[in-house]
Design brief:
The chain has 2 helices and 7 strands, in the order βαββαββββ. It is of the alpha/beta class. A hairpin with a 4-residue loop joins strand 6 (119-123) and strand 7. It is globular. The relative contact order is 0.19.
């Protein structure tokens, strides 16, 4: 499941976040080659951020995917997400940074999904998360 976490110092009050989420979902799915049903987008606004020593509109993103990433895809993803943020939030493309994590399955990287009542536990070589 590709997951794109986006944080920006832009206040999202009054912003049509649904259009940002749907456009980002579509772009990520298309460029990585995964179904939209598997793509997660997390958007956080009003995050105190300094980029280049100023607090002008800026954004940071982290994209995690099991496969589907390579230098060409990453370049296209950066451009697509930057265009969405520039259009929807007025974050200049030059004030956006996107970090990529390709968590390819191997003997060192594994994913266990175990349903514990209403909790979901995700364990991988990169993180352990508990969602309630």
């Amino acid at each position: 499941m590709p997951c794109l976490n986006l944080s920006t110092n832009v206040n999202l009050d009054g912003v049509d976040t649904s259009s940002i989420l749907s456009e980002a979902t579509s772009s990520v799915a298309k460029l990585i080659g995964k179904p939209e049903d598997y793509v997660m987008i997390v958007l956080k606004g009003s995050v105190p951020t300094s980029f280049g020593g100023t607090e002008q509109p800026a954004a940071f993103g982290e994209l995690v995917s099991i496969g589907g990433l390579n230098p060409d895809v990453n370049k296209k993803l950066s451009a697509a997400v930057a265009a969405i943020l520039e259009t929807k939030l007025q974050v200049p493309k030059s004030r956006f940074f996107l970090k990529f994590y390709d968590t390819r399955a191997s003997y060192l990287s594994f994913l266990i999904v175990k349903r514990l009542g209403h909790c979901h536990l995700f364990i991988s070589s990169h993180c352990i998360s508990l969602f309630v």
